[in-house]
């Protein structure tokens, strides 16, 4: 799976998030758990930028099925992390969001891929990803 994670995402969104002291672990760098939370924050900002929320994307809500993170270097308190988000594979039931994270010096900190599925709010069943994501992917 590492080769797939090494692909640079085709950007559909970018944001900066500062590293806070609460993100720092006993190794004096951003902990793996904090990085997952930061990836989630970037995802929420991405959806908000397009006027969506995880709990309502065209009558569906988003559920994380799988997350993979490939760490390249440490991030530290005071870094402003840049999160570049792209859209990977889209199937009938899944969507892959690809992430590239860089530090203040624009050095790669990590890459991640988050596979999500969508649940229909009324039936509570897995449904296809909204067409919005395919359209966004094709525009970029």
Helix content: 10-25%
Sketch the major β-sheet: 6 strands, antiparallel
Low-confidence sequence ranges? none
Approximately what portion of the residues adopt beta-strand conformation?
35-45%
* Multimerization state: single chain
Distance between the termini: 24 Å
CATH evolutionary superfamily:
Hotdog Thioesterase
Mean pLDDT: 94
Strand and helix order:
HEHEEEEEH
The CATH topology name reads Thiol Ester Dehydrase, Chain A
Per DSSP E runs of 2 or more residues, the count of β-strands stands at: 6
Text of the CATH class: Alpha Beta
Which class do the helix and strand fractions yield? alpha+beta
Domain unit count: 1
**Envelope shape:** globular
Compute the gyration radius: what is it? 15 Å
CATH architecture: Roll
Q: Counting H and I runs of at least 4 residues, what is the number of helices? A: 3
Topology, please?
Blueprint: H1 2-6, E1 11-18, H2 32-49, E2 60-71, E3 80-90, E4 95-102, E5 108-120, E6 126-127, H3 131-139
Antiparallel strand pairs: 1-3, 2-5, 3-4, 4-5, 5-6
Word description of this protein:
The protein is an alpha+beta fold and 140 residues long. The protein has one domain (2-139): Hotdog Thioesterase (Thiol Ester Dehydrase, Chain A, Roll). The chain has three helices and six strands. It has helices at 2-6, 32-49, 131-139; strands at 11-18, 60-71, 80-90, 95-102, 108-120, 126-127. Strands 1, 2, 3, 4, 5 and 6 form a six-stranded antiparallel beta sheet that branches. Strand 4 and strand 5 form a beta hairpin. The longest helix has 18 residues, at 32-49. The radius of gyration is 15 Å and the shape is globular. 29% of the residues are buried. The mean pLDDT is 94.
């Amino acid at each position: 799976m590492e080769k797939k994670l090494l692909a640079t995402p085709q950007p559909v969104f970018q944001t900066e998030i500062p590293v806070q002291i609460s993100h720092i672990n006993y190794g004096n760098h951003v902990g793996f758990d904090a990085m997952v939370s930061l990836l989630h924050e970037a995802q929420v900002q991405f959806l908000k930028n397009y006027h969506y929320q995880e709990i309502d994307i065209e009558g569906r809500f988003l559920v994380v099925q799988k997350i993979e993170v490939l760490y390249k270097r440490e991030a530290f308190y005071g870094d402003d992390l840049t999160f570049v988000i792209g859209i990977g594979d889209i199937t009938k039931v899944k969507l892959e969001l690809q992430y590239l994270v860089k530090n203040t010096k624009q050095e790669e900190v990590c890459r991640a891929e988050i596979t999500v599925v969508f649940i229909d709010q009324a039936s509570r069943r897995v449904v296809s990803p909204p067409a919005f994501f395919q359209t966004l992917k094709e525009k970029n």
